[in-house]
Specification:
This is Amidohydrolase/deacetylase family metallohydrolase. One of its GO terms (molecular function) is deacetylase activity. It comes from Mediterraneibacter hominis. The protein is about 20% helix and about 25% strand. By secondary structure, the chain is an alpha/beta fold. It has a domain of about 270 residues: Metal-dependent hydrolases (TIM Barrel), CATH 3.20.20.
Length: about 400
């Protein structure tokens, strides 16, 4: 279908953070009209009554450079289209899978060819997570090269540092903040933010120093609710330095992952008004079958923690778009690519797991009914827009590729 109208859904306005009763007309991949009660003659009508029509979701933290090896030294990554579209995600941000060694292969084979919009943080380490050992040695931190790629390649949204020197004493060759300082310097040269995955370790690398002094305002700490970050004091109250860091402009990404989201940190923080700036998965092969599953599962956890649907959607649409410097994404407007996630909130009895294998009982769960990327139905489990098989056109009755004798 090149032209169709989406009718009777609740359209999410990510700028005002509210739902609006509107129909959406799509033509040649673009949104051409968005008004309450609008009709359009001669095109396919898709009735989405009871559904949420959201801007295509943005997963701020993923790992989608597949087929890059299977050794123990490689993070096992996923195929983006296979896992993102079924969660309503039309833009995935790869969080430092590749350093400068593999980035152009990533761009040539995946970023440039995927229907999924792929943006990326470039890893400060030469080998990135394709070669995890490269993240451990300061000699592999290519500051100027990473900065040049981040500055010149439009799909690069920032610089990533991760996994540096955990569980070992610091020395002259391995200063405590070498990776963070290198990433921040590259970010300064490129004019882009830094995302940091840093283990607080020993007196030389306290968490407070990372978020109050090493990162700049607008830089991002990911995995904020992991067990190793003491965001709560002994009374289970938010640490003052967390509130101070937020005031100075440090940003906090959820980055669920296999081991980085714990209800015992996230729920008390939420109840005290400390929310993540962005909800994201840190999705890769070892957590796609649990405890992460996909972005909708992470979003559903926050629905059941108490966050409103409007705020959950804001943290997976407009907010990440703003943080990564792409304000044209994460919203629905006439003239834009028709990137739309059609979602349903199911009511029932559901359970949700965190990284410590603890359970949250819930009453709501988000389900993706349709994902549209640049006007194309890329995930359509309900067969929207298709004719009934009994009245399908004649071409339906001839199997494609069959030669009649």
């Amino acid at each position: 279908m090149k032209d169709y109208i989406l009718k009777n859904g609740r359209v999410y306005n990510s700028q005002s953070r509210c739902f609006e009763e509107k129909n959406i007309v799509v033509s040649e991949g673009k949104i051409t009209a968005m008004e309450a009660g609008i009709e359009k003659e001669g095109i396919t009508e898709i009735n989405l009554e009871g559904m949420i029509l959201s801007p295509g979701l943005i997963d701020m933290h993923t790992h989608i450079y597949p087929l890059c090896g299977s050794s123990e030294d490689t993070l096992p990554m996923i195929d983006g289209e296979a896992h993102m579209f079924q969660n309503g995600v039309t833009t995935a941000v790869d969080a430092g899978s590749c350093g400068c060694k593999d980035f152009f292969d990533f761009k040539d084979r995946f970023i440039d060819k995927s229907k999924l919009r792929i943006l990326a943080f470039i890893n400060i380490a030469y080998g990135g997570m394709v070669s995890l050992a490269s993240e451990l040695e300061p000699r592999n931190f290519y500051i100027e090269t990473a900065a040049a790629i981040a500055r010149e390649i439009k799909e690069v949204v920032g610089v990533k540092t991760a996994h540096y020197h955990v569980g070992k004493p610091f020395d002259e060759e391995h200063p405590a903040w070498a990776s963070v300082d290198a990433a921040v310097r590259a970010g300064e040269l490129a004019g882009k933010p830094v995302m940091a995955d840093v283990q607080p370790y020993l007196p030389g690398r306290p968490y407070e120093e990372l978020i109050l002094r090493r990162l700049r305002p607008g830089d991002i700490h990911t995995h904020v609710y992991a067990q190793q970050f003491h965001i709560l004091n002994e009374k289970n109250e938010m640490q003052e330095f967390m509130l101070e860091a937020r005031k100075r402009g440090t940003l906090f990404d959820l980055g669920h992952g296999a081991g980085s989201f714990w209800f015992r940190n996230a729920i008390p923080a939420y109840e005290q008004g400390f929310y993540p700036d962005t909800l994201s998965t840190d999705l890769y092969l070892h957590n796609v079958n649990g405890p992460v599953y996909g972005l909708l599962n992470v979003m559903s956890k926050y629905l059941n923690i108490g966050m409103s649907p409007e705020e959950v959607l804001y943290r997976t649409t407009a907010r990440p778009a703003e943080i990564i410097g792409h304000p044209e994404l994460g919203k629905l407007e006439v003239g834009m690519d028709a990137d739309i996630a059609v979602l349903k909130i199911k009511e029932g009895n559901f359970g949700f797991a965190d990284s410590g294998n603890a359970r949250l009982q819930g009453r709501q769960m988000l389900e993706c009914m349709l994902t549209i990327r640049a006007g194309e139905f890329v995930y359509n489990p309900m067969a929207y827009g298709m004719p009934d098989w009994k009245s399908a056109p004649e071409a339906y009755r001839t199997a494609p590729g069959v030669i009649e004798l």
